[in-house]
């Protein structure tokens, strides 16, 4: 019984010393494909303003469900327009927010993959015809925006049907990227922003895919009614030049009405293989 | 290594155990000594969290305790705080999920206390409370310890429920299991590997300690009965 008593005492002590979060650090929900860019922007934001944010990354669809049921997020950065419009229709948000970045697709493969990368997916076709393709990863097209767009791009190239037996679905695009990079697949179609992240580049190659092959992926953000000063400041910060430069750096396009049109055009040109 | 998430998970484990074990001692003893109609149904109900996918429990909690349900709204009005996406919600979820892990070993231990021993205590004029504290608990404590370790370790590893109704908020609902999932998604395999290894070592140590303690210190062990 002494053991039990000691344990209870230890727990109580622990409870007493666990730091509680200050209320002025807002919780923010963000689609996982913008993780690397947003981590950087958030660090810049803290440096420039002295204010901090807590970012939770996950799938946009899951965040919509949580926000509907009262999740305390003050700002939601979705991977797609659709989710923000859904929330707005449900009366959860007061506005339908604004576009902060335009998502792009990339074909990516692990370094030892037999797949040769090109923006026309000729390499994929060739591997498929030779019967050498083992597995090909995309995000689940039923509920992940990047999966939906990957399907559109593959349909555009006439590859959707022949690829069926080889497709592996990630729950969201981060998981698809992780599958594509794992070496147990020959590659996959993922978010350019993830393919460009240093953690990913260490193990893989990528090539950006033309954005005309799929409907535009307008990544939209919105403030919730719970938003406080810091969340509002961060929301505004995301549209400023410094944050936009980071989005460009990670392979996103920018909304046309932004200040940085020339840079945005440069980023939207198809890039060579990396 | 996400220390904040680890600390939060340990805190959650402690609170869950503190809430659950006293209840499990009462419920386990009740189930061990009483025969009544519908007992097997009640025992089945207690076991449900074992077979139900955690995402199902998470879904019911999200919808049932969320701000759109009357229960969620009532609780929010009473407590001044909503349960979902909050630490208190995780406590509710952990307690529910761990009920079978807490009650089962304790019930088995009480069942193996010989009736004559309890009767002897009563014959000596001991009050029921005194019988419990002086005779029964010293005999069943290995069962209690097993329940405690099982619950504690199980909460550390809980994933599905937390993912569904926790919201992955740092310092509030981002537990170690969620942090491992996040690290893998962010290609941070070093962090994921470290945290996974820590949990693995903890689980093995906890289980080994429980077994050896029960064996060394005697009492009525769960295994001896089988």
TrEMBL record, chain B:
<dbReference type="GO" id="GO:0005886">
    <property type="term" value="C:plasma membrane"/>
</dbReference>
<dbReference type="Pfam" id="PF00528">
    <property type="entry name" value="BPD_transp_1"/>
</dbReference>
<feature type="transmembrane region" description="Helical">
    <location>
        <begin position="83"/>
        <end position="103"/>
    </location>
</feature>
<dbReference type="InterPro" id="IPR011867">
    <property type="entry name" value="ModB_ABC"/>
</dbReference>
<keyword id="KW-1133">Transmembrane helix</keyword>
<keyword id="KW-0997">Cell inner membrane</keyword>
<keyword id="KW-0812">Transmembrane</keyword>
<comment type="similarity">
    <text>Belongs to the binding-protein-dependent transport system permease family. CysTW subfamily.</text>
</comment>
<keyword id="KW-1003">Cell membrane</keyword>
<comment type="function">
    <text>Part of the binding-protein-dependent transport system for molybdenum; probably responsible for the translocation of the substrate across the membrane.</text>
</comment>
<feature type="transmembrane region" description="Helical">
    <location>
        <begin position="6"/>
        <end position="32"/>
    </location>
</feature>
<feature type="transmembrane region" description="Helical">
    <location>
        <begin position="139"/>
        <end position="157"/>
    </location>
</feature>
<keyword id="KW-0813">Transport</keyword>
<feature type="domain" description="ABC transmembrane type-1">
    <location>
        <begin position="6"/>
        <end position="210"/>
    </location>
</feature>
<feature type="transmembrane region" description="Helical">
    <location>
        <begin position="189"/>
        <end position="209"/>
    </location>
</feature>
<keyword id="KW-0472">Membrane</keyword>
<dbReference type="GO" id="GO:0015098">
    <property type="term" value="F:molybdate ion transmembrane transporter activity"/>
</dbReference>
<dbReference type="InterPro" id="IPR035906">
    <property type="entry name" value="MetI-like_sf"/>
</dbReference>
<protein>
    <recommendedName>
        <fullName>Molybdenum transport system permease</fullName>
    </recommendedName>
</protein>
<keyword id="KW-0500">Molybdenum</keyword>
<feature type="transmembrane region" description="Helical">
    <location>
        <begin position="44"/>
        <end position="63"/>
    </location>
</feature>
<dbReference type="InterPro" id="IPR000515">
    <property type="entry name" value="MetI-like"/>
</dbReference>
